[in-house]
UniProtKB/TrEMBL annotation, chain A:
Pfam families: MreC. Belongs to the MreC family. Residues 71-115 form a coiled coil. This is Cell shape-determining protein MreC. GO terms for cellular component: plasma membrane. Keywords: Cell shape, Coiled coil, Membrane, Transmembrane, Transmembrane helix. Involved in formation and maintenance of cell shape. GO terms for biological process: regulation of cell shape. Residues 135-285 form the Rod shape-determining protein MreC beta-barrel core domain. It comes from Paenibacillus aquistagni.
TrEMBL record, chain B:
It comes from Paenibacillus aquistagni. It comes from the Bacteria. Keywords: Cell membrane, Cell shape, Membrane, Transmembrane, Transmembrane helix. It holds the Pfam family MreD. The lineage of its organism: Bacteria, Bacillati, Bacillota, Bacilli, Bacillales. It is a multi-pass membrane protein. GO terms for cellular component: plasma membrane. It is found in: Cell membrane. This is Rod shape-determining protein MreD. GO terms for biological process: regulation of cell shape. Belongs to the MreD family.
């Protein structure tokens, strides 16, 4: 009763109305929306632009300190990279031969344009980080400086040099918001899952990554068939059987594999290869379909 | 004039929160610490200025936070910052609140803030953590950061509010 006395009739009424309005707003803006409205675009673009000015020097200083402290490791890394480079030059000859053969065979088998495009290499667009959300544990997002005018779309994968870090979740005019993979939750109806396979076992192995275990820091890969050759230590890459991801983006390493909840399928724990901290530059993966659309648009509007 | 400087200060704080703090927080703690520094300033407004100012500031900066980091939905931060700013002003609006009480308000306020955010996300089935886990995983570590920040800005804030004209006459009329 004291609460009523303290708040008073008028205040209580306003509180109730406020509560209803806020629940309506939250429900309305929840999950996938077509396009964000222009006031949101305006506020988001201006604020992230200012944030970019703040972010750049901080990132540069942190990068410098990092580099100095890792100077010793650089020598070792250089040695390793030299060996890797030698391997690459050797493999490139083999690769070129296979590629030429593959193209010739496709020509012979009369592949349609669409089928040919499927194996096209995708394009990487370099993006700078503008800001990171540190205030909300359940909504881990970062803002990047590529937006609708750069051809960004909702659902495009975003990677760092180590592996996949997230997906574009909202697109604004000049910036966009990336939802990190650490946000994935299989019970959330708006969360997207990724179809994955193991590197080197692309035709035999398949599973879905649907959730991230916050306490262990691992992805859960589910729906693995019983006769799947997947084992500990395999590198997990995205598969083009899914809806959003092109094939071959590195996601993580298998840590363990055990029978799933119902015993019909297996579940594996995947250690992410990307570290979700210390953001420098990121790459947005643009696949061929989006690229074609963009080209069409440019032709139509000279 | 004074209020404009205050808004600018809070906006700068908001920018720093999203751009410099990620580099300051150690990597190991990055999934444990979730500071909401702007909210502390809103609480200071509620206690030393007026609850209506705190309400407006809370709604404004909460909305900014929601729009700039729009992930799941718009609203949770706006709602909880505005509501808690107003309630704190309603309960503790004596102008000579001591430091200990202010620290307690920041601590409890931040705790309730995080709980409301947790609850809203649970209601819309965006997260499915157990409250006990959330409490141990990130809430308690974050609360200490909030407390530390409240302690740091205590003296400058008190000075700021003492030089400022205490309350607008319109606000006084509304309060009575």
């Amino acid at each position: 009763m004291t609460l009523f006395k303290l708040l008073g009739n008028k205040r209580l009424f306003i509180l109730m109305v406020g509560l209803i309005v806020f629940i309506a707003i939250m429900g309305f803006t929840l999950g996938a929306r077509g396009k964000v409205s222009w006031p949101e675009k305006f506020v988001h673009d201006t604020v992230t632009f200012v944030q970019k000015i703040f972010y750049k020097p901080a990132s540069a200083i942190s990068g410098f300190i990092d580099d100095v402290s890792k100077l010793k490791e650089t020598y070792e890394e250089n040695e390793r990279l030299k060996v890797a480079l030698a391997h690459y030059t050797r493999d490139k000859g083999v690769y070129n031969a296979y590629k030429a053969e593959n193209e010739r065979l496709k020509e012979d088998l009369k592949f349609t344009e669409r089928q040919k495009q499927k194996s096209d290499p995708y394009e990487y667009r370099i993006a700078q980080v503008n800001s990171i959300n540190v205030a909300d544990p359940f909504n881990q997002t970062i803002n990047i400086d590529l937006g609708e005018s750069d051809g960004m779309r909702v659902g495009m994968p975003v990677i760092s040099i180590d592996g996949v870090v997230g997906m574009i979740s909202r697109v604004y005019q000049f910036t966009s918001t990336v939802e990190l993979l650490t946000n994935m939750d299989d019970k959330d109806p708006n969360s997207r899952s990724i179809a994955v396979t193991a590197l080197g076992k692309e035709n035999k192995s398949f599973g879905m990554i649907e959730s991230y275990d916050q306490s262990e820091g691992m992805f859960l890969m589910t729906r693995i068939e019983e006769d799947d050759p997947l084992e500990k230590g395999d590198i997990i890459v995205s598969s083009d059987l899914g809806q959003y991801f092109p094939r071959g983006l590195v996601i993580g390493k298998v840590k363990s594999k055990e029978p799933g909840d119902f015993g019909l399928t297996y579940t594996a724990k995947i250690e992410p290869s990307a570290s979700f901290e210390n953001w420098r530059e990121l790459f947005v993966v643009v696949d061929h379909a989006a690229r074609d659309d963009e080209a069409d648009k440019k032709e139509k509007t000279p | 004039m004074n209020r404009n400087w205050m808004i600018l200060f809070m906006f700068l704080l908001f920018l720093i929160e999203g751009t410099w703090l990620p580099f300051v927080i150690p990597d190991v703690w990055s999934d444990r610490l979730f500071p909401q520094l702007v909210f502390i300033v809103v609480l200071y407004h509620a206690v030393y200025k007026h609850r209506h100012t705190a309400l407006m500031m809370g709604l404004g900066f909460g909305l900014l936070q929601d729009i700039v980091y729009y992930g799941h939905m718009i609203g949770p931060h706006t709602f909880s910052m505005g509501l808690l700013g107003y309630l704190a002003g309603l309960l503790f609006s004596t102008r000579n609140t001591s430091m200990m009480v202010m620290m307690m308000i920041s601590f409890m306020g931040s705790f309730i803030y995080q709980t409301i955010i947790f609850g809203i996300y649970a209601l819309f089935s965006v997260q499915h953590l157990e409250f006990k886990d959330a409490l141990l995983n990130y809430m308690i570590p974050s609360l200490f950061i909030q407390l530390l920040f409240a302690l740091i800005i205590y003296v400058p804030m008190r000075k700021w509010f003492e030089t400022a004209p205490v309350t607008d006459s319109t606000e006084d009329k509304e309060a009575s």
